[in-house]
Amino acid sequence: MSENQIKKSIQYIFTENQVYDQGTKKRILNKITNPPQKKRRTSLMPIVVTICLLLGTGVWISTILSNSSQNQNLANTEEELPTSDNLEGISSENDKIAELEFQVSTFEDEREYYHEVIAQILPSLSDEEMLNLAKSHFRYELSVNQTPLTSNGKMEVEPGEVDVMLTFWMTPHYNVLSDEWYQKGMISGDYFSHIEKVEPDNGEVIYADGANVTAQGYKFTNMQSGSKISLKISEELRERLSLDTNEIEILVK
């Protein structure tokens, strides 16, 4: 629609609505034909805030990196320059290591010397002396409730549980004895088989083991006052135990 057609239509509206004032007509026509242009307002506040945040973040990151670099340099300096306490500790540890190395060297020299002396002495020993030397590498003990049996083979115990143990210790020969002589030093056969008879015969067989030591025995429970436990051992075991008898009696009080 052209501008003249619009004006004619508006003039018709004025006539129908009885608008005769010329000033009013002009104002209405101007507003319709030339509507006012709205000014576009651009808000700069979000942009300014964003720029400030970016600048602040940059300064903050720069400060952190600077402090981190300074701390790292300080740490490196501390690592490169040990304190006097650290130096004293290192010196003390080095002294201990040197002392231990000296002791080990001394022990090795002594061991070598003793082996040379023993190698010179052993050929002069008789077979009996060699057997006694071999036997000295093994030790046997018969105990009742962890108390070694006396030489007369008799012991009294309290009522209740009674443990009878035969313990066998082995001493390493450190290559001083030949394997043949080392075997001769042991008791013949299974050491526990040298307990030939046990009464009562309802004892529970128990075991214990450790470094270079082993033990085996019997556990008797609910032993009443006046009761007795008796064992008979071999002559060979009696000799190893240095007992006066091979008849063992354990009396319950």
Characteristic key phrases:
253 residues, alpha+beta, Immunoglobulin-like, five-stranded antiparallel beta sheet, 23% strand, transmembrane helix, membrane, transmembrane
Structure at a glance:
This protein is of the alpha+beta class. 48% of the residues lie in helices and 23% in strands. Among the domains are: 3-33; 131-252, Immunoglobulin-like (Sandwich).
Describe the structure.
Among the domains are: 3-33; 131-252, Immunoglobulin-like (Sandwich). The chain contains 7 helices and 9 strands; from the N terminus they run H-H-H-H-H-E-E-E-E-H-E-E-E-E-H-E. It has helices at 3-16, 22-33, 45-80, 84-121, 127-135, 179-184, 235-241; strands at 138-144, 147-148, 154-157, 160-170, 195-199, 204-210, 213-223, 228-233, 247-252. The strands form 2 sheets. Strands 2-1-4-7-6 form a 5-stranded antiparallel sheet, with helices on one face. A 4-stranded mixed sheet has the order 3-9-8-5.
